[in-house]
Amino acid sequence: MSPGNTSTDDLGDDIISVDDVAREAARIVAEGPPLERIAELAGNKPLVTIEGLHAGYGQMEILHGVNLQVSAGQSLCLIGPNGAGKSTILHSIYGFTRIFSGSIRVDGQDVLHMTPNQKLRQAGIAYILQDNSVFPDMTVEENLWMGGYLMDSPDQAKEAAERVFAKYDRLAKRRGQPARVLSGGERRLLEISRALVMNPRVLLVDEPSIGLEPRFIGMVFEILEDLQHSEGKCIIMVEQNAKKGLDFADIGYVLVSGAVAMADSGDALLKHPDVGRLFLGG
Fold first, then answer.
1. What are the residues whose beta carbons fall under 8 Å from the beta carbon of 223, sequence distance 6 or more?
2. Is residue 25 scored above 80 in pLDDT?
3. Do 106 and 15 share a structural domain?
4. Do 195 and 232 meet the contact criterion of CB atoms below 8 Å apart?
5. What is the CATH number of the domain that holds 132?
6. pLDDT at residue 12 in the model
7. Most distant CA pair in the chain, distance
8. CA pair distance 56, 240, nearest whole angstrom
9. Domains in the chain, number
10. What is residue 10's predicted lDDT score, i.e. its pLDDT?
11. pLDDT reading at 140 higher than 60
C-alpha cells in the first residue's frame, strides 16, 4: 500500500492520511471566506489588494480566483498543504508568474504589469527568498550594498547600509567578513536586511524559518515583528511551521488547491479544530 493511501486503522486514531487531508480540505474550500470578511480582517484599509487572481506557470493555472487584502503595519501568513499555491501568491505579487486574469494593487496603484525591479523601486515591494541568497564570497557590507542596486548612486546604497548597521549590531560586527562565515540565523538576518536597503513598504517573506536551528528561529521572527510594528511594514509570509507563522501573524489564510479556503485572525485559526487537525498536526 502506498504512503498516500495508508489507512488510519494501520497507524492509529491520531493519524490522518494524505488522502483524508485532501478530502477534508476540499470540503472546507467549498465556499471560502466572503470578500467582506477579507476586507474586515485588513481593517478595510488595505495596502495590498488582490482580486480574482488566476495565475500560474506556462499554461498551468495554479491560483483560481484568489482574493487577498492586508494593510500597512499588518502581517498575513499563508498556510496549507504542499502545492496549494502559497508561494505562487508571493511569486505573482512580485512578477514571477503568468497572470491569466485578476488584479494586484499596492496603495491603489496597479502593479500587475510592472517588472520586479519596478515593483521594488516604484511600489516598494521586496521579496525575501527562501533559498540561501547571500553572496558568500562578498563581505557582509558588500552584500548590503547589493541591496541598493536600483538606487541612483553607490553612495546612496552605502548610506542605507550604514542605517542597517546602526539597527543591527550583530551585522555591524561582521561587516568586513565574508558572508560565508555567518551562522544560519545571521545569513537570514543579512537577507532580510539587504531587502531593507531600498526601504520597501511590503515584504514578501518565503519560509523565513527554513533550514534554521531552533535557537535562530525566534530571532528571525523578532526581527520581522519589529519591522512590522516599529516601521509599519506590511508582511506577507509563507511559513512551513504553520503554528509559528499563525502565532506571529495578525491574519491567516488557509489555501487549498489554489483557492483561499479560510481567512481569519492568526489566533482564531490556531484554535480552529479543522485547521489544527489538518494542518497543525492535531
1. 189, 192
2. no
3. no
4. no
5. 3.40.50.300
6. 44
7. 65
8. 21
9. 2
10. 42
11. yes
